[in-house]
Write a structure and sequence with these properties.
343 residues; mainly alpha; Serine Threonine Protein Phosphatase 5, Tetratricopeptide repeat; 2 domains; three-stranded antiparallel beta sheet; globular; binds zinc ion
Amino acid sequence: MLLSKPFAISYPSEAGTLFQMNTVRSLTETGTQVSIVNQIVQKVLHNPKLSQQFFSLYDGNFHRGEVDPQLEGDNLSLDAFRVSDICSMNSFSAGPSKIEEREEPSALYIMPSYMNHSCKGNCARYFIGDLMVIRALRNIPNGTELTMSYVPPNDNYADRTRKMAKHNFVCDCDLCVVDRSEPVLSVQTRALAMKKFENEIRDKLRTNSISDVQAIQEIQKIVALMEKTYKDANRSTYKIELFLPLSALAMKYMFTHQFLKAAETYEYMMSLYGFGTDAEIWSPVLVDTGLHVAQSYFEAGQVQKGKKWLQRIREAVKVTAGGDDKEFMKKHAQVLHSFDKYY
Ligand SMILES: [Zn+2]
């Protein structure tokens, strides 16, 4: 739908360890953020025509009443604080463009910056090098606002709110509405269960210090505890926080050859995001998870169900990322090779 090259981009290795305190906004700005501001100041000073594009972006309402920089003769005077505020409100952490170096650059894009946030966005972005590709996730009726998620929807409500605090708005998507309607006690109990999973059980899984049978029992207990918090809160949709423990559980089912249980668990994980329904919240994790549904159905001998899931995921990738069959096979080779004898 939209391809955009960065107005400015900075890689950690180029920006070095530079950082500065912005005492006006009480922010610490890292190397890449400082470097982007410097780049933009230079770019706009050398080519003042670009200033209109840049200064039309949201600046956090810190500069109400200020007029955009005007050319006086050959001179353009800039407010570097405003440049910095615009960057802070609009810069993206672009995907690693030098994949082998795992370098995550910061970048500022003009057109994509006009898109507002919704955890349940109707568009999604991905990167090819520093080129941002934005695709529509579904048919969008004429006149509908285009939105995309600034933060991963699998973050819990508190984390999403914290990450978006600087943007100064309250998200009213279906997920946030459901999250906000929950009693505090349910949220806290669930957070404690999640902490136990992350701090205790995951460690044991990582170090292989418990048997598969014990691991399955312990994860099942956590899942039951979390399910109860949703039930107590009368909540049946977007139980997304279950995703991580269920993912560990499904993996254990695979290891212990309980393929049908694995398939059902992976399938349940897909439903947490409303996959395939009008309520769907898109996340790239759905691709691998969906392929695992297919894989476990194949392993369980339910070939038709496996094929159906493979097809559903192929369709979802076509919509969200495009590309032909060859590219799909290449990109997901690791999972697909584990069951290529079935299709
Ligand atoms: Zn939201």
